[in-house]
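Fold this sequence, please.
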Amino acid sequence: MSAITGVSADQPYTSRVEALLDEDIAVWDVMHSCKRQGSLDASIESASIVTNDFDSFFASHKHIAQVLFNGAKAETEYRRRVLPLLDVGDRLINYQRLPSTSPAMASLSPQQKQMLWREALC
């Protein structure tokens, strides 16, 4: 996001959030909480997953027309746990999985990932 907004990752959190909002970008995790050993998504204990309240989020942000997932786990859990219960009326939302920005996802270079994310956001 830093490369897209031009705001350094070293800037205060509030500055980074404001820069994203200026670009009409919201960042929100699919999972509100979960248990896992280590940092890999594969280590997430499925039974421990609690998702964020997307119904309220979308109700408060009616202009959202696109959701981009930062990797497969976020998309999988959203489609499994959120989408079947979601009430967005007749609004069309485009869903797209993008490559994880995690260094663990090394099949693409950081520059390739940045290009794909930039294309999806523009």
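The chain has one domain: 29-121. The first strand starts at residue 31 and ends at 33.
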